[in-house]
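Batch job 17 of 40 flagged for manual review because the log was empty.
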Amino acid sequence: MNVSLTPELEHYVSKKVESGMYHSASEVIRDGLRLLRERDELHRRAIEDLRGEVRIGVDQADSGRTRPLTDELVKDIKTRGRKRLAQRKGRNPE
């Protein structure tokens, strides 16, 4: 297989080899492809998880477990979302 790179990417690969982190350009490219594969897998899992959450919501709606979208409910949803985000970032919610 023969792959063409832009001059910028060629320079980047060369710098990685020159740094001693990699023995060859092939190693740099293989490592990059491994990372791309990992990212694709994470994306696939995230989509799968999202579909599962949507499925739960649809099932709840189908069974009548819904409530009107009021200003109070929107405020509550935002508060809970901000709290979760803060917990993920490792800080206290504001």
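Reviewer: the log was empty due to a logging misconfiguration, but the result itself is present. Helices lie at 7-18, 25-62, 71-88. Unflagging and moving on to job 18.
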